[in-house]
Amino acid sequence: MALKTRKKQVEAPVIHRPRKARFQAHLAPAEDSTVRLLKEELQLTSDTDFLSDAVALFRWAVSERKLGHRIVSESASGERKVLVFPRLERVAPDIVLPRIEIKWTERELESLAELASAAEASPPTEALVRALRG
Amino acid sequence: MAIVIRRLEDRDEVENFDCGDEALNNYLRRHAWTNQEKISIGVSYVAIDESAPRTVLGYFTMAMASVPRDAFPKKYVRGFPPYDLPLILLARLAVDRRFAGRGLGHALISEAFRISLRVADQVGCRCIVTDAYRDRINWYARYGFVPIAGASESRNIRWGPVICGQSVRRCDVSWNGRTMRNADRK
Fold first, then answer.
1. pLDDT above 90 covers what percent of chain A?
2. Least CB-packed of A27, A64, B78, B172 within 10 Å?
3. Neighboring chain A residues of B80 at a CB cutoff of 8 Å
4. Number of domains forming the structure of chain B
5. Does A107 touch chain B if contact means CB atoms closer than 8 Å?
6. pLDDT score recorded for residue B146
């Protein structure tokens, strides 16, 4: 009697590979020809590689702009051009512009508001008229 | 003595300027040029004598400022437009003490008012404010500055609206070589 051994079935671990996303773009003829030209220049054979490289470049640009860095090209002669790309500006940190900060007390603000909201300004003084005539 | 008032220039001699107040001297020597040319936060105008066109005899500095609408007490906010209240700040004004008493202060503040009028006309501004030393309050009051109540004892008195456009528009004054009247200002 043959002894039957039962092989214990070991289940292979399930590997959840991230699902590849499909990307379909509707390009205008001009954009389509630009993509083709770029693929040729960059010697990219597939749209996937093209998109992957474009995303890498865009991701870098976004991260730089997020840090507040400007993206600049520099020619051999030192001429610089700054990339201005409106969508990138959405991630750029707010520029802190120099400004005059006046500290007001509550009473001062009340007093200023009263003066500034008056329907009629006070008549100019003699000295003021003289100052503006000079 | 032919006095000219113009923007502060790089080669102006400011090191010997002495109005008797170290803070005002120091501002002209150390900060006025940077604030004007490098960070564009305020412009200084200097009075010079044509015979010594680099020596600063007096100066004033002007800057734009604003008060957020929300900062005002609620009972006043209703009469205000939904924007910050724009102000012109007469930030500094000083005359070298060796040239005091010759009308330089009047010449400087007159120019400050003319500039304020132009700014109010071209950009829009409700009033001009300044921080005045307590011993100078009568001088500012002569030009229509009125005290803004509530300044703490520890600091200078803040002076408020002198020009709200219309206060000057109501009088006939010569400005930039032409007479400004109600009719052509409205």
1. 34
2. B78
3. 113, 116-117
4. 1
5. yes
6. 80
